[in-house]
Amino acid sequence: AEDKSGIIVRLYNPTRRPLSGTIKPLWKITRAEIVSLAETYREEIPIEPYGLPLTLKSGKIKTVKLVLAI
Question: Which of 8, 33, 37, 61 maximizes the CB count within 10 A of its CB?
Answer without folding.
Answer: 33
